[in-house]
Specification:
Blueprint lengths: L12 H24 L6 H22 L9 H16 L1 H24 L8 H4 L1 H26 L10 H37 L1 H6 L7 H44 L5 H30 L9 H46 L11 H8 L16 H10 L1
Length: 394
């Protein structure tokens, strides 16, 4: 706790929450990583045992070519082992590649994307943290001003009684202030906590990437970390858009509050805009979670997995060839039968002219031997059992 200074009391609620959560989460994430990978932790001995088993299984598979393992895969395997050892046992590498990227990159990208929104004199969007604090204070002050105005106009000895429209407006302003706080500061703080916890336990899941059976845990950890990284970025951009839309209305409400003449319709419109953007932030979180689920790790299929596919392809090819062979054999038989019929017809036709009362076609039909049709020459083989049946019937 001494590493993170206590924020000043006049910085505001928004700055106080974000500063405290961000600082403490980063400090304890780094301390958790160092404790997990330190000499008193069981992770280094467990990682050594896992590497021993992995190298033994890898040597066995290469020696006997199990599941298509080849020596050409050795450089990639060595690179994989080196990356796992570097990320699980070296804090400086892990801090540069994982910790700093997850903690600082989202907000930096959000600032770059939302920077054009701060142009044209948009003061609230220049510093979204300060803009959130100003907007939250204004909504709360407007609700308090309406409440105080009703107290001043109430008869002596009676409680504060608000009209229907005033009561609804005060409730809307308070709900809008709470929704603004939870949909912006709350989401950012939640993302900071999730990122810190995931990075602190990262070495455990990185070590599980050694084996294919436990690689799914590593993939799930990466998906969760990607979602936790993207949430602050989209929340920062959505907050900047909200501040740009709200700035003229907040300025108008501040002028009306100074004149003690807050317009109820303007206050309700500002409250509705805040509630709409709060719903949009929830939809963005769901979209980010869906994007995080899209992470896939390419996995080489083993021989045992590809064997059924290869067998199906070979079977389909053989069936296609057999079907084509049967069709070609049928077409050849038809052509051969047709050519044989024509040859026999020409050879059997008499050479002399037809006699009186005898037509050429009739004489040809009488003297021409009929060619065997397709299938007529087939004879089923007679077995010993068939011969016995024929003898018994005779």
């Amino acid at each position: 706790m001494n590493l993170c200074p206590t924020p000043a009391l006049d910085v505001g609620l928004v700055h106080d929450i974000l500063e405290s959560v961000d600082c403490n989460v980063q400090v304890y994430s780094a301390a958790g990583y160092q404790a997990l990978t330190g000499p008193a932790s069981p992770l280094p001995p467990a990682l050594t045992a896992l590497l021993t088993i992995y190298v033994a299984l890898l040597g066995y598979r290469m020696l006997f070519a199990v599941e298509g393992t080849r020596l050409s895969q050795a450089p990639l395997i060595a690179l994989k082992i080196g990356a796992i050892l570097a990320l699980t046992l070296n804090w400086s590498i892990f801090q540069t590649l994982v910790f700093n990227v997850s903690a600082q990159a989202p907000l930096e990208i959000g600032r770059v994307i939302s920077r054009p929104m701060a142009m044209d004199g948009r003061r609230l969007a220049e510093d979204p943290i300060r803009g959130l604090q100003t907007t939250y204070d204004e909504l709360s002050a407007d609700a308090a001003d309406l409440q105080r105005k009703a107290a001043l106009t109430a008869p002596a000895g009676q409680g504060v009684v608000l009209g229907g429209n005033e009561a609804a407006t005060v409730a809307d302003l308070r709900h809008a202030a709470a929704a603004l706080l939870f949909s912006t500061v709350g989401i950012l703080a939640m993302a900071f906590i999730a990122t810190g916890v995931l990075t602190a336990i990262g070495p455990v899941f990185i070590a599980l990437f050694l084996f294919e059976a436990t690689g799914g845990f590593f993939v799930g950890w990466v998906r969760a970390l990607v979602s936790a990284i993207l949430i602050p970025m989209v929340c920062w951009i959505g907050t900047s858009v909200l501040l740009v839309v709200l700035e003229p209305r907040i300025a108008l409400l501040a002028q009306q509050r100074a004149a003690h003449a807050i317009n109820l319709r303007a206050a309700s419109a500002a409250s509705d805009i805040v509630l709409i953007f709060a719903a949009a932030q929830s939809a963005l979180i769901v979209a980010v979670l869906i994007i995080g689920e899209g992470f896939r790790l390419r996995r080489h299929a083993t021989t045992a997995e590809t064997a059924p596919v290869v067998a199906r392809e070979v079977r389909s090819t053989v069936e296609t060839v057999e079907a084509r062979s049967r069709a070609e054999a049928l077409a050849s038989s038809l052509r051969r039968s047709s050519s044989t019929y024509a040859r026999d017809y020409v050879a059997a036709a008499p050479a002399g002219p037809a006699g009186p009362g005898e037509s050429e076609a009739g004489r040809g039909a009488e003297t021409m031997p009929r060619a065997a049709r397709l299938g007529e020459t087939y004879r089923r083989r007679t077995t010993v059992r068939d011969r016995g049946r024929v003898g018994a019937s005779a």
